[in-house]
Amino acid sequence: MTNGKESYNVKEYMDKIVTNQLERFKTFTEWTQKDKAEFRKLLDILRSPIDQECETAKGKGDRLENVVEFIIRKSYFYEIFKNVHTQTNEIDEVIVFSDRVRQALQTFGISRDLIPIKDNFFWESVKITKNPWM
Predict the structure, then answer these.
(1) Buried (b) or exposed (e) across 75-104, using 16+ Cβ within 10 A?
(2) pLDDT in tens, 61-102
């Protein structure tokens, strides 16, 4: 098989297509050094000792929520809506598979199966009752 410039056998041709699509997918998921440094900082804050006298349960939960939110935002695939109110509850974060990502997957020919979370939305609520690092 030939594309005008290079000659391929079918296996090489298919491998090149798959490799190109996987490389595109990697660009959506790879963290920069700045991302990694920011994540380490959030983890350090999360692991730091809790001041029992002035930190509330909400403050403790916010530390963990910041880490979870960072990870999800850096996944590129989801949008986060914070503090969503229902008739009876408040959900800390509703996480929705992004329309932008649906379009990107289609445009670049990337399989949705590469994303391990199959749901198009889910919610997250952080509750900390004890300091797990003490």
Answers:
(1) bbbbebeeeeeeeeeeebbbbebbeebeeb
(2) 788 889 988 988 888 888 888 888 878 877 888 888 888 888
Closest CA to 41 of 73, 59, 66: 66
Rounded to the nearest 5°, which phi and psi values hold at 100? -60, -40
Is the pLDDT at 129 greater than 70, yes or no? no
Cα distance between residue 129 and residue 11, in whole Å: 55
In what helix (H) or strand (E) does residue 81 lie, and over which residues does it extend? Answer: strand 78-85
What confidence category does residue 33 fall into, taking pLDDT thresholds of 50, 70 and 90? Answer: very high
Reported confidence tier of residue 134, pLDDT bands at 50, 70, 90: very low
Q: Is 48 exposed, middle or buried (0-12, 13-18, 19+ CB in 10 A)?
A: exposed
d(CA 45, CA 37): 12
Cα of 53 vs its chain's centroid, Å: 34
* Cα torsion angle, 13, 19, 21, 27, sign: negative
Phi and psi at residue 12, to the nearest 5° = -65, -40
